[in-house]
Automatic annotation (TrEMBL):
<dbReference type="Pfam" id="PF00067">
    <property type="entry name" value="p450"/>
</dbReference>
<dbReference type="InterPro" id="IPR036396">
    <property type="entry name" value="Cyt_P450_sf"/>
</dbReference>
<comment type="similarity">
    <text>Belongs to the cytochrome P450 family.</text>
</comment>
<keyword id="KW-0479">Metal-binding</keyword>
<dbReference type="InterPro" id="IPR002397">
    <property type="entry name" value="Cyt_P450_B"/>
</dbReference>
<keyword id="KW-0408">Iron</keyword>
<protein>
    <recommendedName>
        <fullName>Cytochrome P450</fullName>
    </recommendedName>
</protein>
<keyword id="KW-0503">Monooxygenase</keyword>
<dbReference type="GO" id="GO:0004497">
    <property type="term" value="F:monooxygenase activity"/>
</dbReference>
<dbReference type="InterPro" id="IPR001128">
    <property type="entry name" value="Cyt_P450"/>
</dbReference>
<keyword id="KW-0560">Oxidoreductase</keyword>
<dbReference type="GO" id="GO:0005506">
    <property type="term" value="F:iron ion binding"/>
</dbReference>
<keyword id="KW-0349">Heme</keyword>
<dbReference type="GO" id="GO:0020037">
    <property type="term" value="F:heme binding"/>
</dbReference>
<dbReference type="GO" id="GO:0016705">
    <property type="term" value="F:oxidoreductase activity, acting on paired donors, with incorporation or reduction of molecular oxygen"/>
</dbReference>
<dbReference type="InterPro" id="IPR017972">
    <property type="entry name" value="Cyt_P450_CS"/>
</dbReference>
Length: 388
């Protein structure tokens, strides 16, 4: 069975920590939904079991171009199936291991301290989103990739233009401009010496995985689109969750060893991503009494699956003492986010350093949420020091 789902376009009146009503109803119904995205019909899968199925079953392909995401560029490995996908993941594997993330934590702490120095110097009262939640991941990612501050800022602006485009014609035009910008950086780094990710991605010397200029650009673009903006938004959302739940913040203060589990719980609990990356069904599949036909577009709902009561006890409760294994915030299967360890480090450092530096920090007003795209705070006004 299926049901029509009307996607919310504005979060007005919606609890900032709740999944969308329509997706909750879909999860409770035990059926699949249908939804129009840019005028193209997609099937929506909401339960944890169904999301794991569609993201790990060869009957659902990332390589078959969808009508909404017809990207066909060398190196764009998020739009590939095995074995082609594996070749590109192998090229970047060493930069996204748990061991690499531990080294990157040193960079994150240094950048976080610099951000907080600037915030403290400006005096009580600030919006944490631009000066901390966005700045911290941006500067760390730039350093991991080997980009200067100016290079990173220009590339981020180009990427944001694509993400904020209003229609498919604009998306295609701005995507072409973004790739032209990205390939110019690949060429530049190919001629420079260095051991950051982009230097090695672009190098033309001997390597077990040798990429062309176009392939290196495609891989670089996937990493930026899949990780840059989403990590920035998640950092801000996690800080908001802890500021809005003082009892959970207090539990972390009493027992700082809870931080790693708390990061996992925030990743599970916060409904950042209302829609996953579409797959295309390559053969007819029967699911919950509904036939998903070959050629149909399918979207896994990661945030909704993370609230599945069949997978998590009391899923709508935020509890930093929980050990939420098998959450789907980073996806599932071969396309699980390669930057997941770095994302965890950034969230952990952002929270730890903020609350250590400003133990009495608190919200200073309403928190508007982004009306479109990823669901997260658009502003996060805070203050600290003695209450007025």
């Amino acid at each position: 069975m299926s049901t029509e789902v009307q996607q919310e376009t504005t979060p007005v009146g919606r609890c900032p920590f709740a999944i969308q009503d329509e997706q909750r109803a879909l999860l409770g119904s035990g059926v699949i939904g249908s939804y129009d995205l840019y005028g193209v019909k997609h099937w929506l899968l909401a339960s944890a079991e169904d999301v794991k199925l569609v993201t790990n079953d060869p009957r659902f392909s990332s390589a078959v171009p969808s009508e909404v995401l017809p990207i066909d560029r060398p190196g764009w490995f998020s739009g590939m199936d095995s074995p082609e996908h594996n070749r590109y993941r192998q090229k970047i594997a060493r930069d996204f291991t748990l061991r690499a993330a531990r080294k990157q934590e040193e960079i994150a702490i240094r950048v976080a301290n610099a951000c907080l120095d600037d915030i403290e110097a400006a005096g009580p009262g600030t919006d944490l989103i631009p000066g901390y939640a966005k700045r911290l991941p941006s500067e760390v990612i730039n350093e991991v990739y080997g980009l200067s501050k100016e290079e990173g800022a220009a590339l981020e602006a180009s990427m944001r233009a694509v993400v904020g485009a209003a229609d498919m014609a604009a998306i295609k035009t701005l995507t072409t401009e973004f790739f032209a910008h990205a390939v110019s950086l690949v060429r530049l780094k190919r001629d420079q010496s260095g051991d950051r990710l982009l230097h090695r991605l672009a190098e033309a010397g001997d390597d077990e995985v040798l990429l062309s200029e176009e392939e290196a650009t495609g891989v670089f673009a996937v990493l930026l689109f899949a990780g840059h903006d989403s990590v920035q938004q998640m950092v801000g959302y996690c800080l908001y969750a802890l500021l809005a739940h003082p009892e959970q913040q207090a539990a972390l203060r009493r027992n700082p060893d809870l931080i790693d589990g708390a990061v996992e719980e925030m990743l599970r609990y916060l409904p950042l991503n209302p829609l996953g990356i579409p797959r295309v069904c390559v053969e007819d599949v029967e699911l919950h009494g509904q036939t998903i036909k070959a050629g149909d577009n399918v979207i896994p709902l990661y945030s909704t699956a993370n609230r599945d009561p069949k997978a998590f006890d009391e899923p709508d409760t935020f509890d930093v003492t929980r050990r939420p294994e098998q959450h789907l915030a980073f996806g599932h299967g071969i396309h699980k986010c390669p930057g997941q360890h770095l994302a965890r480090v950034l969230i952990k450092v952002a929270a730890q350093r903020l609350f250590e530096r400003f133990p009495d920090i608190r919200l200073a007003g309403d928190v508007p949420m982004n009306p479109t795209g990823l669901f997260s705070p658009a502003e996060l006004q805070v203050t600290w020091g003695p209450a007025a």
